[in-house]
């Protein structure tokens, strides 16, 4: 197959981990006789420096023509004091919205070798393997009006949804649950929000079409508790944009493997943006210390979700597991009796496998 | 001093724990020569059954004349299928709003004897002692419009604040920090929400008046992570109503002592509503199993925040610590080599102390 991939290295350690992602994609292309072509564009702080905007026009145009996009990381103290529209995150929010990437998929898995690094007791977190499906282009992030009023004496933001926006993310979640352990937790605040009551109705309607999936509704406050007390009880969680932002970050620290977590933001036709969950870590940028595994696992998600290459994706995931199993790790992971290597060596090990 | 207290026992274990709270108040009145008078009213499911509404008029009237209100718990499966306006939680939201209780104070403290019950590793959670100051009568909970639109094809909720509402909660938080460890974390989502940007401005303005308090701003997703990875790094957290709902429930499970957590909802003049954080636990209602300590610690908050009785409050807290230290516990707390007692015995032990 021929696929065209846009790389958005971004800021901090973004370029290093993007390089690792590209190498893995090239290795897969070689082994499975695919043709992957690449082009790189600026986003975030790097784009502010080069073009005066965090999301240049030609970056958007290139992404619009791509089969998939890989993003390294955006942001850093250098750009933190800029006004809102020039903040690196605007680039990220903008590209999600412009590409219509409504479904953010955030898997969290406990790796046996890393449990000692978890803040949770091993018996609480062991065996956890969950997927948060976060709505990404609606809700409190984009609703209008969002403005000052009464001469600056009051302010509003708006949580708005089209019913159809809720339907498509709920369907995506049901489909994800079908290929996993067939359990879906829909998270809302139906005892307070009208939008949550519509959300609950849509889930109740849609579940007719997925009789093999068991559904439960949970309030967002209860979900925030249960993620900590019993993370292994979850399979797939589906929720609104802001709730998803909070819960997926909470979930990301449970297993002690933040440096390992991938994410995908996709739309119906499979086009997607893939990025590691970790940030741009400006303090270690350029020192070959960054752990490339989150990016490499994001590549596996790209192969699966955007290109339908299940076998290739499995190969990448298996390689990551074997390298960890053999005891190799970057400085952020502290594996007892392991062998510490630099970021580029880690990527090479995975490719070797 | 003379004080008039309204008791709202509510549902499930609410009446049992309210009884314990009243006994402790009576003991304090006796020892310190105060006159506390009491009257009981219905709220929640109990009020739906008796009066056809979760918040009867005369309950509101009585609360309006009280110096403080104690609430047991509301809700239960019996009322879960009722339409929105008859749900027991409506009683709780209504009384908060009607009394203007804009500041919800939720302390979370790690008790050495209970660390084994925490989902977190002891070394992560030990020493945690934080207070969440949640805005309680504004934000996403009450903003208008909140409605269906386009013939049911879309929906909105509104996150609205007056600048003055943000100012008073931020001031309350600074004052709370001043009598604690003088560190304030203001939590928002300023990279996305206009209301969060106003929130941040208000904090920056107000901090001039509290030069002894160190302030930091944190994004809500980062705060959700740090509560799990490093809870002992927080002192006071101040945040919007919905963020506060999520974070305070997340925080409540960190220390393994959910059955111990009190809460206070207060306004400027000190009038407040005090309630245990735990729910109505209908499964154990009426069996003398409910742990009364959260309610008793809520009484301590009432003495301090509504009546200005610092010494009396300290006496109650010290009694709770001593009873725990002596190894007494209810069925929900599992203290190694402890002595399990029923809820009423537990209350008696505290009063004895
Ligand atoms: C940078 C920020 C706007 C973004 C979000 O809130 O969506 C980030 O936290 C994320 O989750 O990808
Ligand atoms: C019952 C519910 C409406 C309430 C809230 O969300 O405020 C509860 O979760 C709380 O935190 O006291």
Task: Provide tags for this entry.
homodimer; 353 residues; alpha/beta; Isopropylmalate Dehydrogenase; 10-stranded mixed β-sheet; two-stranded antiparallel sheet; 12 helices; 40% helix; 24% strand; globular; binds 3-isopropylmalic acid; IsoPropMal-DH-like_dom (chains A, B)
What would your notes on this structure say?
Two copies of one chain form a homodimer. Chain A contains twelve helices and 14 strands. Chain A is of the alpha/beta class and 353 residues long. Chain A folds into two domains: 198 residues, Isopropylmalate Dehydrogenase, CATH 3.40.718.10; 125 residues, Isopropylmalate Dehydrogenase. In chain A, the strands form three sheets. Chain A has a ten-stranded mixed sheet with strand order 2-1-3-12-11-4-5-10-8-9, sandwiched between helices. In chain A, strands 6-7 form a two-stranded antiparallel sheet. The radius of gyration of chain A is 20 Å and the shape is globular. At the A-B interface, strand 6, strand 7, helix 7, helix 8 and helix 9 of A face strand 6, strand 7, helix 7, helix 8 and helix 9 of B. The structure holds 3-isopropylmalic acid (2 copies). One 3-isopropylmalic acid (IPM) sits at the interface of chains A and B.
């Amino acid at each position: 197959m021929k696929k065209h991939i846009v790389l958005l290295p971004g800021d901090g350690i973004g370029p290093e981990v993007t390089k690792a992602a590209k190498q893995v994609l090239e290795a897969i292309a070689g082994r499975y006789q695919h043709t992957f072509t690449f082009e790189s564009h600026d986003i975030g702080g790097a784009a502010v420096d080069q073009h005066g905007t965090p999301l240049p026009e030609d970056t958007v145009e290139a992404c619009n023509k791509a089969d998939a996009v890989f993003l390294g990381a955006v942001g850093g103290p250098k750009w933190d004091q800029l006004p809102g529209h020039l903040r690196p995150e605007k680039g990220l929010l903008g590209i999600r919205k412009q590409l219509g990437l409504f479904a953010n998929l955030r898997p969290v898995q406990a790796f046996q070798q890393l449990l000692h690094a978890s803040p949770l007791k091993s018996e609480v977190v062991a065996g956890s393997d969950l997927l948060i499906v976060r709505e990404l282009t609606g809700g409190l992030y984009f609703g209008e009006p969002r403005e000052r009023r009464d001469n600056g004496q009051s302010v509003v933001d708006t949580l708005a949804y089209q019913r159809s926006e809720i339907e498509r993310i709920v369907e995506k979640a049901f489909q994800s649950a079908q290929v996993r352990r067939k359990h879906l937790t829909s998270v809302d605040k139906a005892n307070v929000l009208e939008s949550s009551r519509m959300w609950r109705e849509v889930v109740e309607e849609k579940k007719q079409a997925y009789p093999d999936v068991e559904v439960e509704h949970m309030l967002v406050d209860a979900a925030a508790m249960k993620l900590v007390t019993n993370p292994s009880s979850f399979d797939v969680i589906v929720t609104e944009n802001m709730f998803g932002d909070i819960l997926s970050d909470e979930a990301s620290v449970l297993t002690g493997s933040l440096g390992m977590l991938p994410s995908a933001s996709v739309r119906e036709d499979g086009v997607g943006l893939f990025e590691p969950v970790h940030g741009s870590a400006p303090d270690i940028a350029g020192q070959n210390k960054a752990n490339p595994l989150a990016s490499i696992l994001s590549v596996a998600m790209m192969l699966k979700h955007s290109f339908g290459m299940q076998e290739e994706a499995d190969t990448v995931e298996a390689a990551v597991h074997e390298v960890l199993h053999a005891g190799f790790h970057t400085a952020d992971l502290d594996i007892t009796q392991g062998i510490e290597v630099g970021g580029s060596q880690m990527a090479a090990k995975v490719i070797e496998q």
